[in-house]
Amino acid sequence: MSDEGQRLPVTTDQDVVRVRQAVRTFSVAVKLSLVDQTKLVTAASELARNTLVYGGGGEVVVTRVQNERRAGIKIVFADEGPGIVDLTLALTDGYTTGGGLGLGLSGARRLVDEFEIDTEPGKGTTITITKWCR
Amino acid sequence: MERVPVLKIGDILLVSIQIDMEDQVALQLQEDLADRIVATGCHGVIIDISALDIVDSFVGRTLATIASVSRVLDAETVVVGMRPAVAITLVELGLSLPGIRTALNVELGIELLARSRQDELTELDFDEDEPDAAAVSTS
Fold it and tell me: How many structural domains is chain A composed of?
């Protein structure tokens, strides 16, 4: 019941759009509030773009989750890119190595309830986010 | 690749984004708008984002760039129709869109542009007609 996940490749700009659409569909299905839907889709968009631009592509898995009290959505972004050398720096607002605004990672973290990052230089990066219904 | 149409209405270029844009589409829009501003000599750009259910940092940055580029080309940009949930998310994301003028809808956006154009022209007239007055006031 809780493991009907959807797996999406992220190798093109178009795939980032598909991730947004899939996350939106899941968000509506678990009845996240409109603001929470917007926050989760925005966070997913930032992280999927990071997977593409910094990770050199990878995949995203969107899953519906359930604990004792609430339903929610868990999204995993995985790439086998260069990894993140200085995580503290990467999570700082305004820090970027890619010419962006440096808000993707730090901003996405603020938009979700749970944010986990697993990265090692040369081994890739896996980010897991969760948003729970209120 | 899809393309966002740019419509000319009087002295204004109107863009209504109706699709979930790929990054490339957003960049193309930025170029198309710069070209159209120069080709038409329009002094105002209105970007309607009422159909967008999210604005992430990439789209936000593109809007900011469009506003800056238009300003250099003597056109003012107004972003209109942002949804409340999008505004909340943008601020929490850390993107406050400095330098972008906003209005609640297209109609108010047109009024804003007309007013700011009027102010600009009045200022110019003043400078040309009364050089002495300006000289006196600074002395």
Answer: 1
> In this complex, do A17 and B22 lie within 8 Å of one another by their Cβ atoms?
yes
Q: Do A103 and B54 touch (CB under 8 A)?
A: no
Note the pLDDT tens digit of each residue in B25-37.
Answer: 999 999 999 999 9
Q: First-to-last CA distance in chain B?
A: 59
Whether A86 is in a domain gets the answer yes
Residue among B24, B84, B95 minimizing CB distance to A103: B95
Q: Distance, in angstroms, between A43 CA and closest chain B CA?
A: 8
Three-class DSSP category at A90: helix
Q: A67: domain CATH number?
A: 3.30.565.10
- Record: contact A16-B24, CB cut-off 8 A: no
Partner-chain contact A100 B57, CB within 8 Å: yes
Interchain pair A38, B20: CB under 8 A: no
Name the CATH superfamily, with its identifier, for domain B6-138: STAS domain (3.30.750.24)
What's the ipTM?
0.90
At B40, list the tokens: 């038409």
Residue A1 belongs to some domain of the structure: no
Q: Is the minimum CB–CB distance between B56 and chain A shorter than 8 Å?
A: yes
Is residue B132 less than 8 Å (CB to CB) from chain A?
no
Q: How far, CA to CA in Å, does A23 sit from each of A72, B32, B129?
A: 11, 30, 60
Gap between the Cα atoms of B85 and B102, Å rounded: 16
pLDDT (tens digit, 9 = 90+) per residue, A68-99?
999 999 999 999 999 998 888 888 888 888 76
